[in-house]
Amino acid sequence: MKILCIGRNYVDHARELDNPVPEKPVFFLKPDTSLIVNNKPFFYPDFSSNIHHEVEIVIRINRPGRNIDQRFAHRYYDEITAGIDFTARDLQDRCKEKGLPWEISKAFDNAAPLGRFVKISETGDPGNISIRLDINGKIVQEGSSSQMIFSFDQIISYISQFITLKIGDLIFTGTPAGVGPVSIGDRLQAWLNDEMLLDFYVK
Ligand code: MG
Fold it and tell me: What order of strands is seen across the sheet that includes strand 187-192?
């Protein structure tokens, strides 16, 4: 199982980090050791002092495929949830300055808390799913898949030109604006539409 993540998929978020709006999807990978499931806590790592939350819609691949045509991409996922693409922003900034890969800031242990999956047939139109992150009961990020630069289907089609997708692979589809730091003691709750799917503490 692999975790694929899309960067800069919402215009407002690309702008808040001073990144150009991409012409093609930008993606990177996290290993399976990044996953946190069942609302287990995230332990703040000692190698960073600026861990940022990025709440994202996550889809799960349900059949293998490569070179998937965009028209058929919707057949390759039927479950969806919210996840956090935790990012050590201080380490990432150093990588970016030097033009180095970002893995150290994105792929560390527990950098991918994952919510409970629901069927896409229950959430309705995949092109219009709202996503939200609350920290300690206050809304910090809010968006909708309708604001994504690249749709789920475009992402699947693009990635599968380079990497074969397998059952169980996860795709984090990018974060809306409003990313920021988390602190020890914070409670993070992520929602798709009006359903809370992820609820955990930073320890
Ligand atoms: Mg992200």
Answer: 138-144, 130-135, 187-192, 195-201
